[in-house]
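FW: tagging you since you asked about this chain on Friday. Here's the raw sequence from the shared folder, copied in full. Didn't touch anything.
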Amino acid sequence: MIRTILSDRLQGKTPTKDEAVRLAAARGEELAALLEAASTLRDRHKGKTVTFSPKVFIPLTNLCRDFCGYCTFRKAPDEPGAKTMTLAEVLAVVRRGKALGCTEALLSLGDRPEAIYGEMKVFLAKLGLKRTLDYLYEACKVVLEETGVLPHSNPGLMGSGDLRQLKEVNASLGLMLENVSPRLMLPSGPHFDAPDKKPELRLKTIAEAGKLRIPFTTGILIGIGETWEERIDSLFAIRELHQRYGHIQEVIVQNFRAKPEIPMRDHPEPSLEEMLKTIALARLILGGEMNIQAPPNLTPESYPLYLRAGINDWGGVSPVTPDFINPEAPWPALAALHEKTAAAGFTLRARLPIYPEFIAQGEKFIPSSLVSYVERLRDADGLVTRELSPKMPTFESAPREALRA
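HL: got it, structure written out here
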């Protein structure tokens, strides 16, 4: 049964949800066949090039109105480590990254902190602003104009007006779907006290980005209490949005990591087998043309195996800043990433925060305000020009500096 499903997929047929659930039960030889089919599909469309984005991670503010059971990023104003960066601080970090070959500034921030924290309202008022999303726009604009590094923002829920404004100063935008199951918002669930994690609201943001032709990043978070059926439903929801609008440029499969300071500290982490299966299912459901990534720093000993499951991208890797979402998990050095990628039979290349296939479509996906910035950084293949790509010795020896308040 499983081999028949896999054979059909390699002939261009999309598995049904029931077939995907059957594939999720694969063990032993069937699991090996599942991984082989996913990697074969990837190779047909992506060849033997695996990409990553050299980036700086900018935690613009870690204040947030949501209280997710697995999050260490969010802070209240009176907690140690609470921080909203000034524009001068943002620029200082981006300039350090640019000097080391970074072409992406990833700006992450909490969802609507001004809705519950007076301190954030005061901070914004001093700048003549009312919303954190307006401050994000100002930060992206100054990064773009002062450094030429391309912003990619993950600010949480956005309305059509927010998306339209941010599109002018972002090469791409992102919002993790995480999961479509409303069950995860029930009492004791990971999203119970997180109003911005309602699946219908996140799906609406992704759809609005599609209407505006914004290259978009999304993905699923596995191991937070969801079932296999809910994971699969989430992947199909992403597929349907992309079929409708054609704007989803990459899908992340991210694994939950337990940490001592979170409410879910005793919750079991997903196994490596679960990750490999989920990645393979994502490849089969989303197709060979989709860019699929999984973060290497969250499985430091085993991440090369993700290549066997069908990924073609490692996501962002930074020589300057840690992963502020998972600060205990350092990025792999680029030299090591290159060596392990090569050992698996692939060539590692740096990309921009907008993928080559979207660059190739020109102003359909790139606003006129960004065209010249993208053109300065990309080569004929739509990847980072080799003259600007980070050199491995410099990248590996760079200090992994944490931002300080």
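FW: The first strand starts at residue 49 and ends at 61.
HL: agreed, and The radius of gyration is 20 Å.
FW: great, closing this out.
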